[in-house]
Specification:
- By secondary structure, the chain is α/β, with parallel strands linked by helices.
- Helices cover 32% and strands 31% of the residues.
- The chain has a single domain, classed as 3-Layer(aba) Sandwich (Rossmann fold).
- The strands form two sheets. It has a six-stranded mixed sheet, sandwiched between helices.
- α5 packs parallel to α6.
- The longest helix has 16 residues.
Amino acid sequence: MSVMIECRDLVRTYVMGDQVVRALDGVSADIGAGEYIAVTGASGSGKSTFMNLLGALDRPSEGSLRVAGENLSALDPDRLAEFRNRTIGFVFQQFNLLARTPAVENAALPLLYSGIVPAERRRRALARLEQVGLADRTGHHPSQLSGGQQQRVAIARALVNDPKILLADEPTGALDSQTSEDIMAIFDRLNREGITIILVTHEQEVADHARRQLVFRDGRIVEDRP
């Protein structure tokens, strides 16, 4: 298995008033291509900070991070944004859909920054909506969709650029238990199709879908278990 993500001694500090907070405190891990990983831990343990670094939404204060062969610390902001859009798909707890925009246009949004013509953007978005079971809801606005359907649109949006890595931050946090299972079944299938999936969750039943769990406490990985 080739290494998709290589973390070495990652530290992330924040200055809050006269205090320096060490959100990550020397995190090292390798994540292979095609792995399915759950990142767990109590609130404030560092798991969301870790996710933000992997997704190139933030930079480490110390240490090195390579994702899909790129040294993220060496990229300027424009190249970092291009890398993020090309390589990583994001799924969030609150869906983050545009309220006045139909599902197909929400799903196509990442392609706006890729210079792809409108007809091709629509074709790709429709294909991804079909993949997540929403072929009959492509013209619906978020207010016309259930929470589970909105999350499916968000997953389609995350997939529309054919990312190598899917990062999900509490993807079932706003959903009931049955809808959560339906959403996790989509993640399970996507991983079987070869996408590297890393999800942050505080729910053990969600974490149990993954094949490996990284448990964070006080900014460190305290368990790395299958």
